[in-house]
């Protein structure tokens, strides 16, 4: 995911979140907090954060991340053909937690379609 804009003034501030030891984190990856530590968000889950760095999780380490708010627009890349997608559809996160599938039923609501081919970009809000 890549931050695009917010309906509110300003950009998201970096926050520090505890890591899960041994987990590999990637820039743009959707994260949730489980047992007080950041981990990859499930396919249909509204993420709490978007990862801000590439790093391997260390015991008691902290990770730079950006809080996800419903007023923000994020841009993701499609991992499958999205020719049938339309604004308002809710997509699932891809297995890497960074990209988006063309499968509906997730938490990433499409607000703008920039391309529907594999590798095409869509802009979403998490709700």
Describe the structure.
There is one protein chain. The protein is an all-beta fold. Helices cover 0% and strands 46% of the residues. The protein has no helices and 13 strands. It has strands spanning 2-6, 14-18, 24-25, 30-34, 37-40, 49-51, 55-56, 62-67, 72-77, 90-93, 100-104, 108-113, 121-126. The strands form three sheets. The protein has a six-stranded antiparallel β-sheet with strand order 1-9-13-12-10-11, with no helix packed on it. Strand 4 (30-34) and strand 5 form a beta hairpin. The radius of gyration is 14 Å and the shape is globular.
Strand and helix layout:
Elements lengths: L1 E5 L7 E5 L5 E2 L4 E5 L2 E4 L8 E3 L3 E2 L5 E6 L4 E6 L12 E4 L6 E5 L3 E6 L7 E6 L1
Antiparallel strand pairs: 1-9, 2-8, 3-7, 4-5, 4-6, 6-8, 9-13, 10-11, 10-12, 12-13
Brief description of this entry?
The chain is mainly beta.
Strand order in space, largest sheet: 1-9-13-12-10-11
Main β-sheet description: 6 strands, antiparallel
Q: Rg, please?
A: 14 Å
What is the overall pLDDT average? 95
The counted number of beta strands is 13
Secondary structural class = mainly beta
Q: Total number of helical segments?
A: 0
For this structure, the quaternary state is: single chain
> Distance between termini?
15 Å
Give the overall shape, derived from the CA principal axes: globular
Output the helix-strand order.
Answer: EEEEEEEEEEEEE
